[in-house]
Amino acid sequence: MTEMDPSKKVADRYLKREVLGEGTYGVVYKAIDTKTGQTVAIKKIRLGKQKEGVNFTALREIKLLKELKDPNIIELIDAFPHKGNLHLVFEFMETDLEAVIRDRNIFLSPADIKSYIQMTLKGLAFCHKKWVLHRDMKPNNLLIGPNGQLKLADFGLARVFGSPDRKFTHQVFARWYRAPELLFGTKQYGAGVDVWAAACIFAELLLRRPFLQGTSDIDQLGKIFAAFGTPTSSQWPDMVYLPDYVEYQFVPAPPLRSLFPMASDDTLDLLSKMFTYDPKARISVQQALEHRYFSSAPLPTDPAKLPRPTPKSRVSDINPQDGPTVLSPPRKSRRVMPDRERFEGNSNLAEKINECDGEVRQAVGDVAGKKEHVPTSVDFSIFGSKPLSRPTINRLWVYWVNLFPHVMIFFYFLRECHLACV
Ligand code: ADP
Questions:
Q1: pLDDT (tens digit per residue) in 291-315
Q2: pLDDT of residue 156
Q3: CA 200, CA 202: separation in Å to the nearest integer?
Q4: Does any ligand 1 atom lie closer than 6 A to the CB of residue 340?
Q5: CA 315, CA 22: separation in Å to the nearest integer?
Q6: Residue 278 a catalytic site member
Q7: Residues in the active site (predicted)?
Q8: Which of 28, 92, 134, 331 to mutate to test the pocket of ligand 1 (most atoms within 8 A of CB)?
Q9: DSSP conformation class of 372
Q10: What backbone torsions phi and psi does residue 340 show, to the nearest 5 degrees?
Q11: pTM for this entry
């Protein structure tokens, strides 16, 4: 009698139910674990052309994810290969923060917002304590369980699998949540990138719409500078050394209160510390959790009492006609790449990760890919009114001067070809 395939044995343990949705890496099913009776979500990851299966690094990292256990992190219960796909079994969650933010029937009080952002930061603090970056923080990766617990999901998957669509593999982080150092093409980044993304989520909870909705990486930087002013070198000394740094004309920072008119002073203080330009000066997640915002009134709402959409109401189920839309960028454009990062400003972390990796891959954005044009202005559209004058970039003429010899060579070459043909 032939021995049963061990992966089939594991697969048989889970009774597949309906499809929950299709994500970047493949289909997600609801399933029942027949051994425990628990409802789970199984993410079936297409291994595509990687016929040889998941590589050693990926397996090691999956093992690492399995060991990350915290009340604010989604539990990876199991991982097994089956029929050429990798199956990741997660605890089942009812909804996500994007659905909460978009649901116009939900009123979020300051105490509710405090609770959601506190759980987000607690999950992140745990990851950072374990020397792991999330790197794909966005509201639809913050899942919400039946008891109102918020849990970070899609943790480290980008690092393990990257984007299945090669066109997007140069992208790190969902653009709207991307820190300025990433947009300037830094290759060495640290926990600060998650703090910036968490600040964007915080702002989104307050505004009930994504805060900085850039349409390209350049536009994203324009939106950031319009909101917080163009960074000066005294504010962020290392900025000018970043690979894709381009000088933007200076625009002063408008008062933060003008962007968040209803927010308390404590809220604004914490936001400004999380949105600090220089990643070395940016507040850490742990420091953010210790900020007086969390200890002052109103205290965070008990998670069980948090307003949430009715179970099963996910973003994909919401009819866009139902109310004012808060649009996420197309899923794929918000995806990430598989890369190996060094942790910036945190040498221990850097060494720890690189010990495992042996290689440092670049976190290259559109800017680095030189796919976009040189920025010509800072975008003021977040203010809803047109600026009096659109500041232009100072160094545009340098590009034309550099281009001139190439144009001349091209015409010379054309002439030679023409003469050869005649
Ligand atoms: P993406 O890659 O775009 O972030 P995912 O692959 O994470 O999408 O998820 C696809 C769908 O499956 C989404 O609707 C998501 O809400 C749902 N989903 C993912 N993980 C879980 C889970 N643990 N419990 C319930 N639903 C989940």
A1: 999 999 999 999 999 999 976 545 4
A2: 58
A3: 5
A4: no
A5: 12
A6: no
A7: 136 (proton acceptor)
A8: 28
A9: S
A10: -115, 125
A11: 0.73
